[in-house]
Amino acid sequence: MSEEPEFRWKQCVVIRSDVKMSCGKKCAQAAHAAVGAYENAGKEARKAWLSEGQKKVVLKVAGERALFELKTVAGMAGIPCTLIRDAGLTEVPPDTVTAVGLGPARSEELDRITGGLQLL
Predict the structure, then answer these.
(1) Fewer beta carbons within 10 angstroms: which end of the chain, N or C?
(2) What is this structure's pTM?
(3) Cα separation of 33 and 5, whole Å?
(4) Which domains does the chain possess?
């Protein structure tokens, strides 16, 4: 049996739990957050994360304020991040903040910011 891989890099995607969205809509918002944060990352972080298998963790928060706080704290820590605002074409009103993407970044750095959050 092979050893379990050690992931030194990961990405965290955080979704609002107070906005009524179907499972598919949540998945789409998570995908937007993951791609957006990746695009904001530096070359070294992207390369390291890709080489390890692109670990992602999807978490939840209770509201919009928590997403803004996560983005602020992550940004101050130098972690690539992006806030997702929906266009409002399907299930939620236009400009609804639905998710935030953090990383790729070192796992321990993200754990300091997101370690208290629950999995989606």
Answers:
(1) N
(2) 0.94
(3) 25
(4) 9-119 (3.40.1490.10)
